């Protein structure tokens, strides 16, 4: 194979920090909030997770692309990221079952990226300075022009995004003969969540994000699920209202990630934007009910207010993040309602937390 050098690319951060490297994927320009994921595997699942909509993802793993892509490993139909930053990028792949190279996949789906830069330095910078917007370009190299374009990228703070990634039409998933029916509010759901519920005999109907409780209740579900998704939960009044009505009807409910935050807001507990968020596959969480710890998969830049949860008369803390003592899970007193800040479907990631789907099934029976 003839070697052809990659075109040049640059990454400009909101604070003026500039990195240079090689272009990967589509030749173009793209901006978003920059964040990093510490997972050692599962890059395709990360890129297709709707929770990353509007974000540029930095992979801390040194080698990306080496096993190609496979249609069965997508969490949604296409990549949802605004861009990707990696250290070493492989246009060749060794897995026989792969459908294509990651670079061809990026080109097909108009994903802009940069490789060959010091990702360790970049991650340390983000950890120190906090989350900020950034822009990648393989066609514009004038810093002033790039900064002007970067200023047009909206801040993730107070940004509603679930309506941009949710399904347009309701659809069903699982065995329609099942006696257990769950109405899923799609705020940016991952396919692995539906797979985990279907594997436990749950028949799901997935509804668009702004569907009302009355519309979902007409389907006569056994319970409700509030999904993960992108954006700031504090501006999602429509979803908070829906969850309040579910709670008033005393229905079983399970929330994951953004769904967890929406549940907190429905209980009068505020959320806040984190310094740089939790994203990776090795986050330690303690279950305060069982006393056991679990290694979890996480992806969130907002969190639930711990002090307000502890003083709540309706909700109580069930899980705590062992790195920074932030809220990792809660339940409502006297109701079959609970939520976690992490991803028990763990795709990618360890399977320590999949018991939570079994717990949901118990509430539904």
From TrEMBL:
Keywords: Amino-acid biosynthesis, Arginine biosynthesis, ATP-binding, Glutamine amidotransferase, Ligase, Nucleotide-binding, Pyrimidine biosynthesis
Catalytic residues (UniProt): 257 (nucleophile), 343, 345
Reactions the enzyme catalyzes: L-glutamine + H2O = L-glutamate + NH4(+); hydrogencarbonate + L-glutamine + 2 ATP + H2O = carbamoyl phosphate + L-glutamate + 2 ADP + phosphate + 2 H(+)
Pathway recorded for this protein: Pyrimidine metabolism; UMP biosynthesis via de novo pathway; (S)-dihydroorotate from bicarbonate: step 1/3; Amino-acid biosynthesis; L-arginine biosynthesis; carbamoyl phosphate from bicarbonate: step 1/1
InterPro entries: Anth_synth/Amidotransfase (IPR050472), CarbamoylP_synth_ssu (IPR006274), CarbamoylP_synth_ssu_N (IPR002474), CarbP_synth_ssu_N_sf (IPR036480), Class_I_gatase-like (IPR029062), CPSase_GATase1 (IPR035686), GATASE (IPR017926)
Region (CPSase): 1-180
GO molecular function: carbamoyl-phosphate synthase (glutamine-hydrolyzing) activity
Carbamoyl-phosphate synthase small subunit N-terminal domain mapped to chain residues: 7-137
Enzyme Commission (EC) number: 6.3.5.5
Domain of life: Bacteria
Binding-site list for L-glutamine: 51, 229, 231, 258, 261, 299, 301-302
Role according to the record: Small subunit of the glutamine-dependent carbamoyl phosphate synthetase (CPSase). CPSase catalyzes the formation of carbamoyl phosphate from the ammonia moiety of glutamine, carbonate, and phosphate donated by ATP, constituting the first step of 2 biosynthetic pathways, one leading to arginine and/or urea and the other to pyrimidine nucleotides. The small subunit (glutamine amidotransferase) binds and cleaves glutamine to supply the large subunit with the substrate ammonia.
Subunit structure: Composed of two chains; the small (or glutamine) chain promotes the hydrolysis of glutamine to ammonia, which is used by the large (or ammonia) chain to synthesize carbamoyl phosphate. Tetramer of heterodimers (alpha,beta)4.
Protein family per UniProt: Belongs to the CarA family.
UniProt-recorded name of the protein: Carbamoyl phosphate synthase small chain
Gene designation per UniProt: carA
């Amino acid at each position: 194979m003839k070697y052809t050098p990659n075109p040049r690319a640059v990454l400009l951060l909101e604070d003026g920090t500039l990195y240079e490297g090689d272009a990967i994927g589509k030749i173009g320009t793209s901006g978003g909030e920059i964040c990093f994921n510490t997972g050692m595997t599962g890059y395709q699942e990360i890129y297709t997770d709707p929770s990353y909509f509007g974000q540029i993802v930095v992979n801390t793993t040194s080698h990306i692309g080496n096993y190609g892509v496979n249609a069965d490993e997508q969490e949604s139909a296409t990549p949802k990221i605004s861009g990707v930053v990696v250290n070493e990028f492989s246009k060749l792949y060794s897995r026989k079952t792969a459908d294509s190279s990651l670079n061809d996949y990026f080109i097909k789906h108009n994903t802009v990226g940069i490789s060959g830069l010091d990702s360790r330095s970049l991650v340390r910078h983000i950890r120190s300075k906090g989350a900020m917007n950034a822009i990648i370009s393989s066609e514009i190299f004038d810093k002033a022009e790039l900064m002007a374009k970067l200023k047009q990228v909206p801040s993730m703070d107070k940004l509603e995004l679930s309506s941009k990634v949710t399904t347009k039409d309701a659809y069903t998933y699982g065995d329609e003969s099942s006696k257990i029916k769950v109405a899923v509010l799609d705020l940016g759901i991952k396919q692995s969540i539906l797979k985990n519920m279907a594997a436990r005999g749950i028949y799901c109907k997935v509804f668009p994000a702004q569907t009302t409780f009355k519309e979902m209740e007409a389907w006569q579900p056994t319970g409700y699920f509030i999904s993960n998704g992108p954006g700031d939960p504090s501006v999602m009044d429509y979803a908070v209202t829906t969850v309040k009505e579910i709670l008033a009807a005393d229905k079983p409910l399970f929330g994951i990630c953004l769904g967890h935050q929406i549940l907190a807001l429905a209980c009068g507990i505020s959320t806040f934007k984190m310094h740089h968020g939790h994203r990776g596959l090795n986050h330690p969480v303690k279950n305060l009910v069982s006393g056991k710890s679990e290694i979890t998969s996480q992806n969130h830049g907002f969190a639930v207010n711990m002090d307000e949860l502890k003083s709540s008369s309706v909700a109580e803390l069930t899980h705590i993040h062992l790195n920074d003592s932030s809220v990792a899970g809660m339940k409502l007193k006297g109701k079959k309602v609970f939520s976690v800040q992490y991803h028990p479907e763990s795709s990618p990631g360890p399977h320590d937390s999949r018991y939570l789907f079994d717990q949901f099934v118990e509430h539904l029976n």
